[in-house]
Amino acid sequence: MTNTKTLQALFKRYRRPGDIVFAWFWVVISVFLLSQIFDQTAYKNGAKLFAQPRFWPAVSLGLMTAFACFHLLGSALSERIEGRWREVWLWVSSLEYAGWFMVYAIAVPYTGYLLTTIVFAILLALRVGYRSAQMLMAAGGSALFTVLLFKTLLKVNLPSGLIYDQLPDGLRQFMLTYF
Amino acid sequence: MENILAGLEMLARWDVMVALLVGSIGGVIIGAIPGVGPAVAIAIMLPATFGLDPIVGLTMLLGIYGSSMFGGAIPAVLINTPGTAVNALTSYDGYPMTENGEAHRAVSLAYSASFWGGIFGIGCLILLSPVLAIIAPMFGSREIFLAALLGIILVVLAHRGQIMAAGMLGMFGIFLQTIGLDAVTYTKRYTFDQSFLSSGVNLIVVVLGLFALSQAFFLLTAPDSSPDAKPISGKLGAGFKELMQYKRVATVASGFGVILGMIPGTGEFTAQFMSYTYAQKTSKEPEKFGKGSPEGLIASEAANNAVPAAAMIPLLALGIPGEALTAMMLSVFYVHNVIPGPQLFQNNIDLVYGLYFALIALNVIVLVFLLFSTNLLTKIIRIPTRFLGVMILMLSFVGVYSLRNSLTDVIISAVFGVLGLVLKRLNLPIVPIILGMVLGGIMETKLRSALPRLKSPLDMIDRPISFIIFVLILLVIGLHIRTLIKEFKAHQPDEDHDLHDTQAR
């Protein structure tokens, strides 16, 4: 980190690798959304322009497209920064963790919040490279703490697992309520 | 007087006290861990607070907001890594002090300056309240519309070097809030005949994706690291004595914090910088700045801690948030049907006073906690970053799923999580999206309700306050163009920095 000397420099943001890929992506998205303005919004006869349901989507998408084009122009005219595709690959690789998150969310209503959270934390800790018993126990312990805090104590609205139906009567009710 | 007592009474409840304690101490811990930050914590906690009383939920979130910067000073001073982005300038003088063997002095000064700034900010907020109560009702639909417009313009213009990107992201935010069924005409907007889009894109889901999930993805995809902070010894209360020698710097810095905290899009960052520059210019030892100057450290910490109280002013008085954290808090108000704005001072003044006292209490709690547990925090900040990523992902589930038990929300938040990661990697701002969503909604509603009273567009600015805001908008744009021309002529050398990499947290 360098010590910035002026207020202008402090607020200035600098480009990073992959900027132009994002700039293109955003232009494409903006143009596509703007092209749908007549299909996806309505025009009410007799209503004032500012009260039209189309007004704010048109203003926001129009300006978004203009800003996106200028951003792309700025990116294209800037010096190329090395590592563009390596950076894009990193973005793509983050989809794996988005997948982990979704699988976790899908599993909870079936296998229950307690079990799924502990298994999820330990497996993800293994996936990101932790092998020591200490770290795995810390992951499991944190998962247990999270369940106790949010589900048992704060009674946050989280689903109970279908798996609990297999438990004996008394225990089933207990698990359904607290875990 | 009776309003003040009602505010105190509101606070004197066990659940409010517990929320304040959890929020303040939790906020310090979160602030001290580089890689988490108050935005992540508030995003995760938001849905959990919806089931609580407004004052309980708000004090907890306020606790996190107001105390995170206290904690953020610890890694800034000890390991040259700011715990929260707004502690960035603290490391300029704090870390050299640590290198000179004065870690204890630096941390102690940071705490006392933070406390000074915090209390000063609240003092100003309390003193300004009667004025706010008079001015706020003068804000009608058109004034609030123009103030929200000014907010959006300021947020975009504050991102120098990336104004186009900030602009497109801000507009994206405004667009996002238009998706779904239009509340007045009941026509569909950008739903693509998908039923899940009919109810619109939920702000909390977007916030959780952009702030919490993106941070988890960011940490999980980056190499693992574990910051190593050495424990410190000595009495931490000693800083107060030294602070008294520099009370002018601390007070002026807090003043900057208050003034800039009220202005959307600027906040802690500008306040810190301006106070730092002021302190350096008026110091007897300006050459020591950047090499371990106590005045530099005080200026930075006093300024950033005065901001949270000041940032509550536009939120409470006008219902307009100036940055992401107050935008998140706004949703708590809405959930409980307490609408911040001019009526709040008339109908719920006890809540307003309750929040003021909560702010005072949190500063005291945090200071006492830090005086006794700084060394414990130096151990906590050693948590490996990927492990933090696992934790954030696990906690984000609570936030997203508890909202409506909807798998669609999970998918939408994951998509925004990936978008947030890309923005963070590119050093692009996330805040314009959130403020675009919130301020865009305000602008649409207020413009519509102002329309029946407008015969021509000029009627929009025919009242004193709306005219002043309009002049301010022109002034801000004019000043920006002037600065651009000056910069272009001056050909300033580039000073690439990564300050903003942490700003988004």
Keywords:
heterodimer; A: 179 residues; mainly alpha; 2 domains; flat; B: 505 residues; two-stranded antiparallel ribbon; 21 helices; disordered C terminus
Tell me what you see in this structure.
The complex is a heterodimer of chains A (179) and B (505). Chain A is 69% helix and 0% strand. Chain A is mostly helical and 179 residues long. Chain A is flat and about 65 Å long. Chain B has helices at residues 2-11, 14-32, 37-49, 54-78, 90-99, 103-135, 141-157, 163-178, 195-198, 203-221, 239-245, 247-262, 267-282, 294-318, 324-335, 342-347, 349-380, 385-404, 407-425, 431-450, 464-490, and strands at residues 180-181, 188-189. Chain B has a two-stranded antiparallel sheet with strand order 1-2. In chain B, strand 1 and strand 2 (188-189) form a beta hairpin. The longest helix of chain B has 33 residues, at 103-135. The model of chain B is unreliable at 501-505 (pLDDT under 50).
